[in-house]
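Hi there. Long-time user, first ticket. I'm pasting a complex I've been working with (about 435 residues overall). I'd like to know whether the download I got is complete or cut off, because the file seemed smaller than I expected. Thanks.
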Amino acid sequence: MSALVLYDDELDEDCYRARLFLSFLGLQARRVVVDVVPGGEQDSAAFRAVSPAGVLPVLRIEGQAVCGAEAVLLALAHGRAEWLPEGAVDFARVAHWLQFAGGPLRAAVLMRRASLFAGAGDEQSARRRAAVAALRIVEDHLAHRRLDGGLWVVGEGPTVADIALFPTVALCRDWGEEHSAYPALRRWVRAVRALPGFVTMPGIPDYG
Amino acid sequence: MSVTGDGGWYPLMLSADLEPGTAAGSTMLGRDLAVWRDGLGQAHVWDDRCPHRGMRLSLGFVREGALACLYHGWRFGADGRCVHIPAHPDLSPPGTIRAAPLRVAECWGLIWAAATDESGTLPEDDPALAAVPWVPVRSLRIEAPWQGVAGAIGLPEGELAAVLDRDVDGRVLAALLPVGEGACMLHLLAAEPAEVARLHDLADWGQDVRARAEERAGQVFLSGAVA
Ligand code: FES
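Hi, the file is complete. Here it is re-exported in full:
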């Protein structure tokens, strides 16, 4: 495989999705730092030439630029059945949660960005409610999974669905949501943290 | 039946949600707490304030039978006393550096804390509760005043926990933690023997209770597209 290149912003949770999966897979990528805050480099002509919609992260794999966290996860998981199940039902479930991560869960991503970078407060807003509602959907799912003896989002082991959801859940304290309100998420966060190759990012405690 | 006795005992969380060697946060009537379980299985509840610089102990982690603060790594043993300061590993910390422990009880699948030293003992011999083992179902955070939720699920006046006999099949233990004025945690457990399908029904029922209570409180959380 030709060298992997990751266009990366340290504080961006979508980039962390990619870094986390690369680390679980034991893969190295050459890192190109994109200065989003305060640089606004995602809108530069140079970066738009790589990622036309200005989306981060971008992974260059076999010469092909793959834009966006869920696409990067899929591209890296290709051919790895343990991370991307081959059975129709579990594959469909993973697809469902990847779409959720790129769709409704964006409310939480936006809440975090607004809190960290635009100084938005904790007050109730349509966006905060939608963000809380998205976290609850994952919480409710994992609470039910647990009643069946399941620990992971899909199936018997971690998949790209877990990686797509993890950063947003683990970082919700950045916008004022406490993990104490989400016991099922808390248990699952611990399980992800315990996987070999786990890495943190700023905002996710490193117990050393 | 009175499980909260002469008052002052609060159901913080399901026992199953505090694994050995882990720490979690909880809030009891606006009072933030650090809840942790040592390697021997004993649960501890402290005010969520590190004696060093006041950071939150609930974000810490358990090391060698002590709760380690995330910020500068000070460690506090089961009695709350500081046992280790990483910057001064040879120093034996003075006994005055101490986290503030609350009284704790663990029964019927729940971890309880006493709000004051005057809280009586938690009556652990309630026949309705002691007769069967309780299977944890789940806990739900509800953004509505606890009194409304208590009334809606049929807790007796003034009680924070009771065996319910309405709305659901089989015996259900419901316990309610007032988090603050407008929020609570509802803990649900089912009496053994409990089929898995029944546990799912009960978890769904909890979601219904949450949705209805929040609607009454004018708090609606709907996921969907936002800008
Ligand atoms: S604040 Fe806890 S060790 Fe410093």
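A couple of notes from our side: DSSP finds eight helices and four strands in chain A. The longest strand of chain A covers residues 4-8.
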